[in-house]
User: Which sequence fits this backbone?
């Protein structure tokens, strides 16, 4: 039986429809009225707020009466509320979706309640950030950036940057700027907790009154942003961005630099650009030139900067007026982060070893200090206080008792710690390194944010290298003997580094402070058996130990400001850099062969000097303490403004930069002496016994410390001042041609007082009153001048992806205060001493041509030609037949070279993903050079007359000091989502190491083949990475040699002519002599990084 009759059911259904229709019709006026109200727009932004306060603000802005239970809503907290000019109905729907709030809207009334059963998943947010630039790569401050679905809008900051915090999802972004085409970027995917990097390139509008909107995808536009900065640099520039660094397994800047075209690094630390090393490159961190970390050379150790804190590395190969002009090879600038684009934290721990070092014998002299692993001294190496130094007025007459010259000589001699001579045979431990990096970003309001980044690094390495050397023993070929100069160097190093940068950025300003601190300790111990031949009496074992403590502190405050809406920009900076370096108890001491027991040679006969020995302090065994202090102040101000010229965008820029540097050095040198001038037949005890306080004295078989006034005391005190002003124009013509040109005017004023020479003259006046001083040492070195340095960089855009560039500039390499200090200081590797001289600046005229093709972002194919003309280049010269070296100006030189580089993905071979991740890279520089040196001829006069010295210029075709005739890099890289492999090959030509005016005595470093391999694996959902680095796989030896019979000198002594069939390349068959040969071993390291 049917419960409902069909006819009756049909009637019920019709009646139901009629009732529903009447209800809808009767309510239409109500929804129409409510709909009009809920379209009202509201703006809310709260990090945290009670539901009651939120609804009260909504009621105030919308005009609606909102009813709710006040006591209940006060207890409910709502987080991360942000709406800007959004319709009320959209806000209510979003709140219902993401909170427990429920709304019922009718007329001008809203009823709110809480759904306590609803489970709310925490809203996951990500970040969209990037820069807005024009098609020249210049930032566009004040550009409007809008997220269309949310109607969120902000203006790009003074540096063109912008960023949004948004919920996870897919968005479209619209960017507009006055007189530029509007760009809309679609499919911008934001994932929770991740950064979506989007740099947007805007093109100038053909008609400023015409509104044009260009649409592109996120993937295409993000590639175009990086491509624009790479392709449209004002000068010939190569570099690597933070995004590219993040895709490599490198953990410090020294390793990163090897990936920049045309750049090589030595030991992942020191930079070679276009085959030119040290002096002709400039190292900068955050735009400030950093001082050398090497006492005798211009070197900065880039491995102290963690890769996570780097925003970009830029290598300028040509100069523009707005940058320092103190380079010719390249200006390497490391830019660190101040305000991160997103929060990050990472921890790294690593270890490693060397095939010739780890687990093997390690020479340590004097005992390991308690804090050596932390790069601090525990006091055992400290210099004794209040040491008085003196001289022997006349040498070689047996005035042996030093108390005749200094009454306290014996008493103060006993203050020196004899334990510094004790030899310890330890075992080299595995290398270790640790890094911590942290970055935080905080939004203060819609337009203002603050942030900071900090990083800590620690490294310890222990390495031993076997070597053979005949430096200092005459031209003996180490290849021809198994016993001459056999030695081993044990290198202990620890370093601590810290960086903390912070900044605040608003819509029209950005202010940041950057701080870098590095502390390093190196303890190199050289032990060598020298003069090895059949004469047992001449055999010796010589030890040099060089503990060096170095600390660098750099502080910089900088600001950027948008002054007017038409683009007038101001940026400024002030910085201070201080360097302290202490050689604490640098020692050289030598033992003669004592006996041979069961075929084992015993060396325990101290070879003490005495007052009959002629020479200077470094000619005899010694202990040295030296302290170097340098302080640099830098400042700068730049003003730029865009303008239109022939309907094209142009830029004018003016600025001023200056610095003041001061440097001083104090040294204490004590020689290991005996007052007895006879033979030491009975002196067979080690130095720590002979020079123990209780054993010191003036008798036979007694020793003491001679505090040598010739090399002690204040050595020099100098300062240099620099002021530069410039005018630069950056102009486009006919859309295709861009010229960046202008002039930089520099005033340089340097003065270095040679305090050691002044003291020598004072002592001479006391000892020989009324007599004229016969010394030739300088009391002052100085240079003061104005230089005008024009430059021009021309870029012609052949196509969207091809450029032709031409550049001309004059640059100046200024001598530093160490190079103009005439005092001598020892170099353990050269087994000699290095002095400065009264140098003048090197002037270089640079000419460059370059064709470049950018197939896509991160790829390049280019060929360059360059010519560099040097006036007064500086080289490290060796004094003929002596182990004494000095920096000097040569007359002139030139370099003529070709540079080729490429970096190309293999995705053109197919659509497979692995091909897209595989790329080849390489670069090569070939260079031809000629140097004109300044030599001297000694012309013998008539009998009874003194000889005269005639200066002459000698032309020789060879690389400048520190340069190579060619350099080749090549590699292959595979970087997938979770796995990466990088293999690289490097080969350099022979490098000029030291020079003499006799070309047959010039020392070269032979090139060697270097192959490195890196493997990386992402773990734990890509939050962690495991990296394996293997370097020097081939373990080729590094050899130094001289061409003993390579040149003839023309009759007029103006040309060095290579003998037929001979060249500067190493060739044993031509009689080339190897003076030093060293093997480094293969090094492997394993590190683990976790990103929180």
Assistant:
């Amino acid at each position: 039986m049917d419960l409902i009759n069909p006819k009756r059911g049909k009637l019920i259904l019709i009646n139901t429809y009629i009732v529903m229709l009447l209800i809808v019709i009767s309510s239409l006026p109500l929804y129409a009225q409510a709909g009009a109200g809920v379209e009202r727009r509201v703006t809310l932004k709260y990090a945290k707020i009670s539901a009651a306060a939120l609804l009260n603000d909504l009621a105030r802005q919308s005009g609606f009466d909102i009813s709710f239970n006040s006591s209940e809503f006060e207890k409910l907290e709502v987080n991360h509320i942000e709406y800007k000019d959004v319709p009320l109905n959209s806000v209510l729907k979003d709140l219902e979706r993401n909170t427990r709030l429920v709304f019922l809207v009718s007329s001008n009334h809203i009823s709110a309640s809480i759904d306590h059963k609803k489970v709310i998943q925490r809203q996951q947010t990500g970040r969209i950030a990037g820069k807005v630039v024009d098609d020249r790569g210049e930032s566009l401050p004040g550009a409007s950036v809008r997220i269309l679905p949310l109607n969120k809008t902000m203006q790009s900051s003074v540096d063109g940057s912008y960023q949004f915090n948004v919920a996870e999802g897919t968005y479209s972004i619209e960017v507009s700027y006055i007189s530029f085409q509007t760009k809309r970027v679609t499919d911008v995917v934001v994932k929770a907790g991740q950064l979506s990097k989007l740099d947007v390139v805007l093109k100038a509008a053909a008609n400023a009154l015409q509104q044009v909107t260009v649409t592109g995808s996120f993937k295409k536009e993000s590639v175009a942003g990086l491509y624009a900065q790479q392709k449209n640099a004002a000068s010939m520039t190569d570099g690597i961005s933070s995004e590219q660094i993040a895709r490599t397994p490198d953990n410090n800047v020294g390793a990163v630099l090897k990936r920049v075209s045309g750049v090589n690094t030595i030991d992942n630390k020191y930079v070679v650009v276009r085959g030119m090393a040290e002096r002709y490159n400039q190292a900068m961190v955050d735009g400030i030139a950093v001082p050398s970390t090497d006492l005798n050379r211009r070197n900065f150790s880039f491995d102290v900067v963690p890769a996570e804190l780097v925003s970009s590395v830029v290598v300028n190969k040509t100069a523009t007026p707005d940058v320092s002009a103190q380079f010719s090879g390249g200006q390497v600038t490391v830019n660190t982060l101040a305000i991160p684009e997103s929060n990050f934290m990472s921890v790294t721990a690593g270890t490693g070893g060397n095939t010739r070092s780890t687990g093997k014998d390690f020479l340590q002299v004097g005992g390991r200090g308690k804090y050596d692993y932390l790069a601090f001294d525990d006091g055992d190496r400290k210099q004794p206080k209040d040491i008085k130094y003196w001289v022997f007025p006349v040498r070689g007459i047996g005035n042996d008792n030093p108390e005749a010259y200094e009454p306290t000589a014996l008493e103060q001699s006993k203050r020196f710690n004899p334990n510094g001579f004790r030899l310890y045979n330890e075992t080299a431990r595995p290398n270790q390194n640790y890094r911590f990096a942290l970055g935080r970003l905080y939004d203060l309001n819609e337009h203002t944010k603050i942030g900071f980044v900090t990083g800590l690094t620690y490294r310890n390495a222990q390495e031993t290298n076997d070597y053979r050397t005949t430096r200092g023993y005459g031209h003996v070929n180490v290849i021809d003997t198994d016993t001459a100069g056999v030695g081993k160097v044990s290198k202990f190093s620890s370093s601590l580094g810290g960086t903390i940068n912070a900044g605040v950025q608003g819509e029209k300003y950005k202010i940041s402070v950057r701080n870098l601190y590095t502390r390093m300790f190196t303890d190199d111990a050289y032990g060598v058996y020298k003069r090895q031949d059949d004469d047992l009496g001449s055999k010796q074992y010589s030890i040099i130990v060089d503990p060096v403590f170095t600390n660098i502190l750099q502080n910089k405050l900088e600001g950027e400001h948008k002054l007017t809406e038409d683009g007038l920009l101001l940026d400024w900076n002030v910085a201070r850099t201080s360097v302290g370096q202490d050689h604490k108890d640098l020692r050289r001491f030598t033992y003669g062969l004592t006996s041979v027991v069961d075929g084992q040679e015993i060396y325990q006969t101290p070879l003490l000097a005495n007052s009959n020995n002629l020479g200077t302090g470094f000619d005899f065994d010694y202990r040295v303490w030296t302290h170097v202090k340098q302080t640099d102040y830098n400042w700068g101000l730049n003003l730029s403004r865009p303008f239109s010229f022939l309907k094209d965008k142009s830029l004018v820029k003016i600025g001023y930069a200056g610095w003041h540097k001061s440097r001083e050095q104090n040294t204490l040198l004590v020689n290991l002496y005996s007052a007895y001038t006879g033979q030491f037949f009975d002196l067979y005890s080690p130095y720590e016994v002979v020079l123990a306080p209780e054993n010191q004295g003036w008798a036979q078989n007694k020793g003491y410390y001679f505090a040598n006034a010739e090399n002690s005391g204040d050595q020099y005190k100098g300062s240099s001042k620099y002021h530069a002003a410039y005018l630069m124009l950056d102009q486009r013509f006919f859309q295709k041609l861009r010229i960046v040109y202008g002039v930089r005017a520099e005033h340089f004023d340097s003065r270095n007082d040679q305090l050691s020479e002044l003291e020598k003259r004072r002592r001479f006046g006391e000892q020989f009153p009324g007599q004229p001083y016969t010394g030739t040492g300088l009391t002052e070195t100085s240079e003061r001048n104005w230089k005008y340095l024009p430059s021009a960089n021309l870029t012609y855009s052949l196509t969207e992806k091809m450029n032709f560039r031409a550049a001309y500039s004059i640059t100046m390499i200024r001598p530093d205060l160490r190079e103009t200090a005439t005092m001598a200081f020892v170099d353990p590797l050269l087994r000699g001493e290095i002095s400065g001289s009264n140098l003048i600046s090197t002037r270089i005229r640079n000419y460059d041509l370059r064709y470049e093709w950018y197939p896509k972002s991160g790829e390049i194919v280019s060929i360059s030609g360059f010519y560099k003309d040097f006036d007064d280049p500086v080289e490290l010269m060796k004094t003929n037949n002596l182990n004494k070296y000095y920096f000097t100006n040569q007359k002139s030189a030139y370099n003529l070279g070709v540079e080729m580089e490429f970096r190309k993905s293999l995705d053109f071979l197919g659509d497979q993903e692995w091909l897209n991740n595989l790329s080849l890279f390489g670069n090569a520089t070939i260079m031809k050079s000629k140097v004109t040196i300044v030599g001297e001829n000694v012309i013998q006069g008539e009998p009874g007359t003194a000889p005269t010295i005639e200066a002459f210029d000698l032309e020789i075709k060879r690389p400048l000091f520190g340069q190579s005739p060619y350099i080749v890099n090549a590699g292959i890289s595979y970087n997938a989502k979770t796995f990466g492999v990088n293999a690289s090959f490097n080969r350099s030509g022979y490098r000029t190491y030291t020079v003499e005016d006799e070309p047959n005595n010039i020392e070269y470093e032979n090139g060697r083949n270097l192959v490195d391999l890196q493997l990386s694996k992402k773990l734990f959902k890509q939050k962690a990475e495991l990296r394996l680095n293997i370097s020097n796989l081939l373990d080729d030896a590094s050899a130094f040699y001289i061409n003993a019979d390579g040149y003839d000198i023309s009759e007029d002594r103006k040309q060095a002519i290579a003998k037929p069939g001979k060249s500067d390349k190493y060739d044993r068959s031509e009689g080339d002599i190897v003076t030093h040969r060293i093997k480094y071993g293969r090094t492997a390291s394993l590190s683990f990084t976790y990103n929180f």
